[in-house]
Description:
There is one protein chain. By secondary structure, this protein is mostly helical. It is 78% helix and 0% strand. It has helices at 15-46, 49-76, 79-102, 107-135, 141-170, 174-191, 213-219, 222-238, 244-251, 255-277, 286-306, 310-338, 344-373, 375-396, 412-426. Mean pLDDT is 79; it is low at 1-5 and 414-427.
Amino acid sequence: MTAPAIDAFSAIRHPFVxxxxxxxxxxxxxxxIINVAVGWELYERTGSALSLGLVGLFELTPxxxxxxxxxxxxxxxPRRNIAMLAQSVTCIAAFGLMAVSWFEGPVKLIYAMLMxxxxxxxxxxxxxxTIMPQLLKTEQFVNANAWLSSAFQFASISGPAIxxxxxxxxxxxxxxxxxAAIGQLIFVISFSTLPAIPPPExxxxxxxxxxxxxxGFIRRTPxxxxxxxxDMFGVLLGGAVVLLPIFAKDILxxxxxxxxxLRASPSIGSLLMFLVITRLKPMARPGRALLMxxxxxxxxxxxxxxxxxxxxxxxxxxxxxxxxxxxxxxxxTLEQVVTPDRLxxxxxxxxxxxxxxxxxxxxxxxxxxxALFGPVNSVVGGGIGTLLVVVVVALAWPALAxxxxxxxxxxxxxxDVIAATEARHSV
Length: 427
């Protein structure tokens, strides 16, 4: 007998997945346009690598302070409503950046708008990231995640290219911010078509310690802790995106249009890889694959840092996207299958801080080290650091490399109950 054919389009036929995909495309395009516009405007106005690094710091600060309330909100209120409200605030921040650009306001107002957007992301992250398990069956997660991640990467390709093109055509960032705000509005409209699912009623009276239940769950789930630790430190040390304005202007000499394509290159690689994944069977050893792709990511970052040719630089960034897409899919699906629904918001909020920490603090780290040692040394040193992190994680959590196919895993608490029951029966 032949094995049944893989239906690569099974998830995208679901109306909820299509709505999520549209929301993700429009929202991410808007966010990417903001990233390109802010980076270009700050470097044009200040000429400082540190000013680019501060972008990550100002975006991360509200996430750190709001992580606990954001996670609890996602477990106590309809996640759709939280996501819509958060994205509306992001829209307001985009219009604020537009006003600062139009009136040539002080740079500190740019950072203020970034803090506002960071606060909105703190609530949007756990709400958006945990809504899919409420709408789909477990066996649909991998295919749905591949399609939603493809939508994300399509937007990550389009957003920087659109942002760079608008800046190049208009000679400024004002209309780029306006376009970004429209993208956030489309997100809100698309999310409004999803059901507002209330959380299940708590079986016991809520205790203050429940606020921090996500930390306890992650501590008791070493495989998940290993995965997010690998992702956090890998991206923190290997993040070169924040320095792209410097590479585009001073090293590769390609201008704002070239900056847009440099920013888009990782997403092109990710999009192609996600589309390939929709045609593949589940990975037999996803933990081992996770370790291998982070090694590839670190090597590609080193190649980018050493390159002085635009095509080679784009190729290295393209490869970082391929490796990162596999890492993201494994980590996202692992989180969804091992986390009980009642804890998903709180666990996702902590995971979001891990990712936010790696991306935003990594941006600050890259900007600071570039200011001290130069952009090339900053990027190459970060890539080497990523390789060292893989070695440490592999030695500290050897169980990561041994996990089986993701769809065969169960929520950690349920797995503990099954193991205890089997142990009693074996006595």
